[in-house]
Amino acid sequence: MKTVHIAILISAALSAHLTYAVERGSRVEAPASLRNTGNVETVLYRESVGELPMGSSVRPTMEKTCAGLRELGETTKTPIFEPGDDRPMTSESVKIGNSRHTVSFLTITNYDCDWSINQANRDSCGCTFRRLQWRKMHLKRIEGDLLHIYDIDITRGVGTHHSRRRGSRTILEEGKALVPGLAPPRTIGHSEYAGIPCVVKRADVSAVAWSEYCVVEDQAHHWPPEIQSQILGATQVRLHDGIEDRTRWEHTTRVVINATVDAGVFEVPPGIKILDLDKVRAK
Description:
Layout: H1 4-19, E1 23-24, E2 40-52, H2 58-71, E3 80-81, E4 89-97, E5 101-113, E6 128-143, E7 146-153, E8 158-165, H3 171-174, E9 186-193, E10 196-206, E11 209-215, E12 231-240, E13 243-262, E14 273-276, H4 277-282
Parallel strand pairs: 1-13, 3-6, 8-14
Antiparallel strand pairs: 2-4, 2-13, 4-5, 5-6, 6-7, 7-8, 9-10, 10-11, 11-12, 12-13
């Protein structure tokens, strides 16, 4: 059952969807502590929110699993559940980019085992479950003929790096929408997010499950090319006894065209330990 928390989140997103207009030329800031270089870049800036009903299934699953393990004598532990197990996994993301590099910051809040207080014993049945937050960063940067890709866990302070030869496409073109599904997606309507019109496409996963994506198809070239083919909204739909259960995973709430940001946003944050996969593979 949807909680008041979910209602507030979706209400805020819908309010943004109805009232926000496209911004142009605003100065924006990165949602992380990054080095200030003093150099400014012009970028496309997007904010979005979303949810998935994953957190609400953790407690009953763990209670059943651990009860079975105790009966088998494989554990003596009983998990502790703090308030918040009835709330979904939520996300907040910021995407910043231009033709040379892109970066996305993702904050995930979910109900899970807090391993930071359970390090001595990796038995999940002895874990304390609570609302936890993870912050991640995905960076793509062009340097010469190479595309450098960084996947960074800001919360843990670690990340990986690998590179590959880049094609003729720009960074933003490589990130354009791919609508997955077992059958080719079909257009089912039109909508608008953060002041930008988009085409709603349905991609069937099975007879009772599908995804709906709102994709920018700007044939009149009213908007800058950076926003072309970008997904502004994503909804997962599943049929239960003939009733649609709809979960909005991505909902764009703010778009700034020709935004300006400090170039430090496209650098690895200080203090992050990076594993260079190129060097590992070369050994």
